[in-house]
Amino acid sequence: MTISKKGTRKITVGQESYTWIITPSAKGILTLTVQQNEVRGQILRVNIESDINVFWVEFPHIETLNNKVVMPAEVALIIPEAINMGWNPKGKGALLSFKLSGRKLEALT
Length: 109
Hints:
The chain is built from two helices and six strands; from the N terminus they run ββββααββ. The protein is an alpha+beta fold.
């Protein structure tokens, strides 16, 4: 399985190059999907709490919204943490899913 190229971005972490994309998953949830470029191994998915996609729907009542935006610098921090937690970007394997809680990854059960 590979990530569709439409809307993806590239990032280099260490000596490795990755492709990533942010998509809305459910109300209040964005999904970061990451895959290594050369090998196209195991895919990483990270659910991130954010109301950014409902901003205009709720406008002007936005005081209580979590308008988190995922920046490339944050993706660069998530990738090595996911590798330390068992993600094998160069190996075959089932999709590995986490959720971002604050600045820490937590495994989804």
